[in-house]
Design a protein that fits this description.
single chain; 349 residues; Creatine Kinase, Chain A, domain 2; ten-stranded mixed sheet; two-stranded antiparallel sheet; 11 helices
Length: 349
């Protein structure tokens, strides 16, 4: 989008990402990202969406995966748009699916995510179903995440890779990781942008709650996936708190800015945590210096409001506009009376 003076509009998310990427381009670097898109397929009754999963199977199940043909159609359609895919499979939840978009430069991937969400919804409609990327559409079921895999390249070389390191990470990668961990609370209103996002970020459903990193740890906020032998171009860090309701342009701008701050300041991340963080008591968490992600959109907005990183990533105009819109969303939610409240309190007081 452009302003009347023919310059990029200061509140245009795509222009915001391009401006942040220019900080890398000036150094001859490229930001590469891959994304895992999770979504549910729900049944319909005419125009009414039923919160009823399309099938009853779980993770990687093929026997009763009624969505196999539908996912294949989605993948074929996406590839017709020139979007390269890594994989597609059934996820943990009944009726839940995942399609992974192959890593590419951040701007192209953000465009691909926008296109993929529309294509997936359209194909679901053609099969008489409804596809939702809502972070937590059902109580007691797995939420929809959008893990993003990040690395920085220069002259076709992955700057995050160091085969001599135990985790395969270079000093630059550790600095980037340190920046993400330090500033993740400040940008959580972007990575997890809805009131509903924070219903997903709870213990027990493989969604991260604690600010820490590791390799094989499914409870960690950031994972460093183990790469195939000598495949150093695949070295990356995987941020697991994001969900598919996020604006991908703002998401990539924010995480890149946090990582760059770590690189510029040569931040060192804390020691990796490989044990199940959910099983650690409060004292052990404190001893390890492990903090919590925000527990609500309001808490995330409090971090966001004071964040120099978020403001520099979005620019003054969009930073204020985003804060105002999200605060209004929280205020609208706060005055609602839920069924849980009625069931809990009506006959007690």
């Amino acid at each position: 989008m452009y302003a009347p003076d023919h310059k990029p509009a200061p509140v245009d998310p795509r222009s915001i990402l391009k401006a942040n990427l220019d900080l890398l381009h000036k150094k001859g670097m490229e930001f590469y990202v891959g994304a895992e898109l999770e979504f549910y397929l729900f049944r319909r009754d005419g125009d009414t969406v039923l919160i009823t999963p399309h099938d009853r199977v779980g993770y990687f199940d093929l026997g009763g995966d009624l969505g196999l043909k539908i996912r294949k159609t989605m993948c074929d359609r996406l590839q017709e748009f020139g979007i390269e895919l890594e994989a597609g499979h059934h996820e943990v939840g009944k009726g839940q699916h995942e399609i992974d978009l192959l890593y590419t430069d951040a701007l192209a991937l953000a465009d691909n995510i926008i296109t993929a969400r529309m294509v997936i919804k359209q194909v679901a409609e053609e099969y008489g179903l409804y596809a939702t990327f809502m972070p937590k559409p059902m109580f007691g079921a797995a939420g929809n995440g959008m893990h993003i895999h990040q690395s920085i390249f220069k002259n076709s070389r992955n700057l995050f890779a160091d085969p001599k390191d135990g985790y395969g990470l270079s000093a630059i990668a550790y600095n980037y990781l340190g920046g993400l961990l330090k500033h993740i609370q400040e940008i959580s209103a972007i990575t997890s942008p809805l009131v509903n996002s924070y219903k997903r970020l709870v213990s027990g459903f493989e969604a991260p709650v604690y600010v820490c990193w590791g390799r094989m740890n499914r409870s960690a906020l950031i994972r460093v996936p183990k790469i195939s032998r000598n495949k150093f171009t695949s070295t990356r860090v995987e941020l697991r708190s994001c969900d598919p309701s996020a604006n991908p342009y703002l998401l990539f701008a924010a995480v890149l800015r946090a990582g760059l701050e770590g690189m510029n300041s040569k931040l060192k991340p804390p020691a990796p945590v490989e044990e199940n963080v959910y099983a650690l008591d409060t004292t052990m968490l404190k001893d390890k210096g492990i903090e919590l992600l925000p527990r609500s959109l309001y808490e995330a907005l409090e971090y966001f409001r004071q964040s120099k990183i978020a403001r520099s990533a979005l620019g003054d105009a969009l930073f204020q506009r985003y804060y105002d819109i999200k605060l209004k969303e929280w205020d609208e939610y706060s005055i609602q009376v839920s069924k849980w409240e009625v069931d809990k309190y009506l006959e007690l007081y």
